[in-house]
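ESCALATION

Customer reports they have been waiting on this structure for their group meeting. Please prioritize. Original submission:
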Amino acid sequence: MPPFVSLRVFEAAARSGSFARAAEELGISAGAVSQHIRSIEEFAGQPLFRRLGRGVELTEAGKSAFAHASAAMAEMLQAGRAMRSALRGRRISISTAPSFASKWLIPRLSQFQELYPDTEVRMSADMTLTDFAGSDMDLAIRYGPGGYEGLHCERLMTESVIVVCSPRLLEGQPGPKTAADLISLPLIHDDAPERDPSCPTWNMWFAARGLRRADAERGLRFNQSSLAIEAAIGGKGLALAKRQLALGDIAEGRLIAPLTEGDAPVNFAYWLVWPRGRRFEPAQLAFLDWLRAQAIEGDSAADHTA
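Update from on-call: job pushed to the front of the queue and completed.
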């Protein structure tokens, strides 16, 4: 049998293509990773990695070994889930993007906690896609096109874009009703990395309405959708906001959608994803049902069909 700890390090390094990322994932030093890789290569009697400038790649022997190591680690993770089934029946671990977490999910969580006070919710909010093979996440909410390989995908909500601003921005002037009324107002830009290619920029938005604004690229820029919305709440300008993320602030009066035109649908949607064949305990099933109900209750106009 190969040394188990070294095998685990090998699997993480092979999956990530980097000794440094494997060290970060496993919570050990880069030197420890190198030591474990030397140990597993001594056991193999041949190199399993080719060292490159910015990473590593598997040799043919490494590729063959990784296929088995990956399957073995997945089975070990499933064994751990089975052993902890009683605990998992009282806990839900979910991963989602920071903007969706802060503007949509977190404001609603108190309702779930009131319904299920004995269930612990653990949330990971980051921009990286969940690696279910190397984490203990139950499910994830992804914003994208869907159809993720190896995962069950269920559409939670569609998305669209609307023009929003703070009521304070329009104080003392007639409220804008059409795109032409926005020509002189400051603009806010959402440069979030998960940006939908079909989501318009301000230049595209004005052009689609037969208008040209010379300074349409100027204004505050943010790398998270929630920050662009917060800037609009602060009266810094107009934002092309994701409707689902802005609805709560509109309902509370912090934002308004001043134009009479409807919102513009985009291609991306919010998807519930988890590994195919995964069996859920009562906590996860209850949370999924609650999420679906919240999506419909929060915006009955959205298409929630899979």
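Sent to customer with the following note: The first helix runs from residue 4 to 16.
Escalation resolved.
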